[in-house]
Amino acid sequence: MSFTSSIYYLFLAFSVLIYFSVPWKWRHYLLLISSYVFYLSFNPRYIAFILTTTIVSYFSARAMNFAATEKRKKVALYFALFTELMLLGLTKYWNPLAQSTGIFSPINILIPLGISFYTFQSVGYIFDVYRGKLQVELNFPRYALFLSFFPHLLAGPIEPAQHFLPQIQKSKSFEARSLAFGIILILAGLFKKLVIADRLGPIVNLVFDNPKEHFGLGIAFATLLARYQIYCDFSGYTDIAIGSAMMFGFKLTENFNRPFFSSSISEYWRRWHMSLSTWIRNYIFYPLIISSASRLGFSGLIIVTFLALGLWHGGSINFLLYGLLQGVFIVIDAKTKNLRSHFYQKSGLNRYPRLLNSLCIFITFFFIIVPPTLFFRSTHFDTSVILIKNLASHTWSFTDLTFIFRNSYLTQNLLIAGCSIVLLEFADWIQKAKYNVAEYIWSKPIWIFCTIMILCLILILIFGKLETNSSFIYTQF
Questions:
Q1: How far apart are CA 351 and CA 127, in angstroms?
Q2: Residues 6+ apart with CB under 8 A from 131
Q3: What is this structure's pTM?
Q4: In 210-316, which ranges are continuous DSSP H helix?
Q5: What does the CA dihedral 415, 421, 426, 427 come to, rounded to 10 degrees?
Q6: CA dist 97 → 90, 101, 107, 114, 381 (Å)
Q7: Cα 461 to Cα 246: distance, rounded to the nearest angstrom
Q8: DSSP letter at 390?
Q9: What percent of the chain stands above pLDDT 90?
């Protein structure tokens, strides 16, 4: 039941209709059933993993809440962490590490969709209960819904318990405005996914699946397109997730804030996958600061934190290198901040703040954000090595791009996706700098609103790459 399938929207509409038709006290039970039905639709065996995580974390949090001593609280905490991280490690990391190291043998085990997301939510909840920052949730169905709410189940956003649990307990009445805004976000997400990400996919795949056949500018251009593919795929999922939740009256955490308009790598990580960045900061970086690991110093802690972020994406060397590069860039950014400010002042660039900001955005995007995408997008380390070698040992030429323009299908995809990216960036700029587009559309008469939504849907159906097996990149994480 993919977010891009018609059956999902029939399921969503039916769930919303039933949700607001039953008394409030039964609604979270109904939503919990809907969430499990959604998850079961992918593979019935997945349910065993999320139920295990839910049961272990729920009863461990209860045990911590009623523990008479600090020792018993720690026992409950360690039991929950060991069980959940072991489950995550066996399903997600065992086989990649076995294949890359050869130290141990791979095992035949299922990898549940979204296991990193609901495991991180659960771990955050357990830590907050242990620290006394959060009151334990004693109602099991409500807690189960917190982990399994179907809009964010597969790829987030990673919801803090403080943000989501109170919304479950609050009575909601149907609001036409929430429904309308939800529709707008869903259409925006489908546009990003089907018209941009899935159109860029064939071009990116051709290069990264056949690294020996491509060189220089072709590899650089494919890496640039891969960055946009990943962004539009993931932020498209997030828009659909937030829009779907909004229809039920729930507000999910914002996950993206025009990340490609960041003037530094530090700013980029405050705008990109914001729920994961916040989780990493609260539950890895800050605890490391007050632990014995603080002896590593700021730079060492940043590197360790971003290695963990890379490892979250998967157990391959490529993801570790991706995380390492991000950490190194963050450290360099922090260490050179005063030096850069001094240079801007001496050169007079600080007298032209818009020009300076545009220059910083250009450098950050093309020289810091895009290049590590080569490691992120490559399926194997050997692929990355070949691509880097072919990128560096070949004189860049526009003939490197002929593999696109010789193929009318790829050319059409690039033209549609390219124009759509320009339209997307313009819409984002209008949304952030001028006025709220959704509010503007909603302020119009209902027939105008419906006409605009229908036209948007028609454009998606015409220009979107419609495939029944289209999946989202981040659901594998």
A1: 47
A2: none
A3: 0.93
A4: 216-247, 265-271, 274-280, 286-289, 297-313
A5: 120
A6: 10, 6, 11, 20, 13
A7: 23
A8: H
A9: 65
